[in-house]
Amino acid sequence: MTAQIIDGKAFAATVREKVAGHVARLKEENNVTPGLAVVLVGEDPASQVYVRSKGKQTVEVGMNSYEHKLDADTSEEDLLAVVNKLNNDPDVHGILVQLPLPDHLNEDLIINSIDPAKDVDGFHISNVGLLGTGQKSMVPCTPLGCLMMLRDHHGSLSGMDAVVIGRSNIVGKPMAQLLLGDSCTVTIAHSRTKDLPEVVRRADIVVAAVGRPEMVLGDWIKEGATVIDVGINRIERDGKNKLVGDVDFASASERAGAITPVPGGVGPMTIACLLANTVTACCRANGLAEPEGLTA
Ligand code: NAD
After folding, report:
1. Which domain holds residue 152?
2. Considering only Cβ atoms within 10 Å of each terminal Cβ, which end of the chain, N or C, has fewer?
3. Which of 171, 260, 262 to mutate to test the pocket of ligand 1 (most atoms within 8 A of CB)?
4. Which residue among 191, 192, 220, 235 is best mutated to probe the pocket of ligand 1, counting the most ligand atoms within 8 A of its Cβ?
5. What is the domain count for the chain?
6. Which positions are catalytic?
7. What is 101-145 written as a DSSP string?
């Protein structure tokens, strides 16, 4: 079998189009413009690229973008004051503090100081609890993007065996909660899992979020399974820098029914879902109907 490629780039473009449509309606009918504030502390080059990209896409869908760039030695007190100001600003509907933060700042403390209703990354402890108990929450962007692609490909996920490889708070655990919410039978595998290949072979859906280049091999994949590759790994091959996932794409695509490529799979969906979450937060803040198809 040669797998169907799930084109995350094209799918993300349709999500952004939907978001732009909702933004236009909010402006016209309700005189509200959704606003996303991104806070960047320090000069981590990868974070700077992400923040630039987020700001650009925010403006492209018609929303207001507010960037707060703070020095690497910003104190916890000063950062908390910035977050507090954004919490109280009615023009700001989404707040994202770019991670990782410099070592002297307590990430949990900062994230949990964000108003949960504006926590468009879905990392606040209240949102984690709401998601875990199946209540309306802000859902972390990367797993939300994976869920959207899976729903689009399969329709219903009910009863499917899903294996999530990785148990991080930002991908693995929320992904598992979302799949459980869609009535999958979910296994969370991790670095201590015994006989990982055998566990993965049971899966109708495999989500790989490990951070190890091309670790998941084709003969781990059940014939016809859907493979979602979250990994983004930079490697050198044949003297060139290359971006690869956690799945060995060449061998896995011989067995899978459908697979996301890296790049061009999960990656583009993450920022699209951040924009979707900001529109959702704006609608909730204004007591308006939430956009359909953009939330979990
Ligand atoms: P993490 O390092 O926080 O977590 C990795 C998880 O993988 C851990 O839970 C660990 O138990 C598990 N793991 C490690 N080695 C393993 C092994 N040999 N076998 C089985 N499990 C193992 O990473 P993360 O933040 O969850 O990110 C995972 C990957 O996804 C990374 O490559 C990251 O760059 C990528 N990522 C992509 C996006 C995106 O937008 N596409 C977003 C977030 C993360």
Report:
1. 141-268
2. N
3. 171
4. 191
5. 2
6. 54, 98, 121
7. PPTTS-HHHHHTTS-GGGBTT--SHHHHHHHHTT---PPPHHHHH
Distance in Å, CA 181 to ligand 1 centroid:
22
Q: Quote the CA–CA distance of 83 and 154 in Å, as a whole number.
A: 39
User: Is residue 291 a part of any domain in this protein?
Assistant: no
162-219 confidence digits (pLDDT tens): 999 999 999 999 999 999 999 999 999 999 999 999 999 999 999 999 999 999 999 9
Asked whether residue 7 is assigned to any structural domain, the reply reads no
Domain annotation covers residue 181: yes
Q: Do 158 and 107 share a domain, yes or no?
A: no
Cβ of residue 231 lying under 6 Å from some atom of ligand 1: yes
Which ligand 1 atom minimizes the distance to the CA of 165? 21
Question: What is the rounded CA–CA span in Å between residue 145 and residue 99?
Answer: 19
Q: Is residue 24 in some structural domain?
A: no
Same domain? 100 vs 182: no
Judgement on whether residues 150 and 109 belong to the same structural domain of the protein? no
